[in-house]
Amino acid sequence: FPFIFLISTQVFFNNLFNNNEMNIFKYSGLKNSKIFLIFFSLIFILNLLTELEFFKEIEVSSFYPLYLSLINTPMFVFEMFPFIFLISTQVFFNNLFNNNEMNILKYSGLKNSKIFSILSITTFLLGIFIIFIFYNFSSNLKYFYLGLKSSYTTDNQYLAVITKNGLWIKDTNDNKTLIINAAKVDKNELQSAFISEFNSNYEIIRNIKSKKIDITKKEWVIENAEIYVENNKIDEKKLYLKTNYDYEIIQNLFSNMSSLSVFELLEMRNNYKKLNYSLTEVDLQLIKLISYPIFFVLMVVFSGIIMMNTKSFKSKNLKITIGFFFSVIIYYINNFFYVLGNTEKISILTAIALPLLVFTLINLLLLKNINVK
Hints:
Distance between the termini: 41 Å
Strand order of the largest sheet: 1-2-3-4-5-6-7
Order of helices and strands: HHHHHHEEEEEEEHHHHH
Shape: elongated
Radius of gyration: 27 Å
């Protein structure tokens, strides 16, 4: 195998040099990096304006909004990657046409279909790198950003996490702190729950144990409560407890999946499963990430097809506008199906696969006779 890989690599690079294909890799990488920097700069400026607005009445260091904007920008850039690939492809083909390099590639025996296949492979590999390296890096920065920003919000005394030991909630109400642990969430109920109540000095007031707590409203109904005060046990058939949480709020606590890496999403999925918590959002995020390299490829191919069919147009801006217009429509149709999947109107697999399948069919139809363009 070492010799097989050695010889295969040599043949691969030899073909790249002989068929002028190395230039395609260089061009595509160069344009992607330039467009990436442009998007990064624009998003950074918009983030900075948002942070300045947030901190306008809060006394912080002058560089603090700048710092928060910088660590929050990569995740927004990740969301814009379909457009980065789109515009990079348009600029790439436009330069080929303007410099008459498309004819040079054709004379060297490189067909249009071959150019598209090289771009597709490059994009797919780059997409995998983006998901496993750039996304994980961005999600860690996003998590760090949310932690820093939360210290300046009014609700930072509330906290909820899901671990392998179930759902944990920290709540502050009427100068009392509640630490709540539940093994499962079933419909509007917490099951096998244990609540510790502390005063403002974090001295224990009482512990409450119950197999079922109704959390439909913010005033929880604890059934068959076992109350432990010091060494005494008191049984209550129904106990009412005021909190800042109800079932709907708890269901929406963990919707910011962008702050979790791929591996953290997998761990959270296992924890959700043990808790009997809805897996919809986690599964949707995971499948969305897995399908992103394919989506990037489809965007690149579609953008290339648009440029091939509009190469006779003299206006560069008109070409880019046409491709951008259609691709924005495709992007938002894709997001519309994500929403349908997230709200369980359709299955998650349908929400992800159907737009990609339709997009693939459209590209295949448009690729017909691409070599004669």
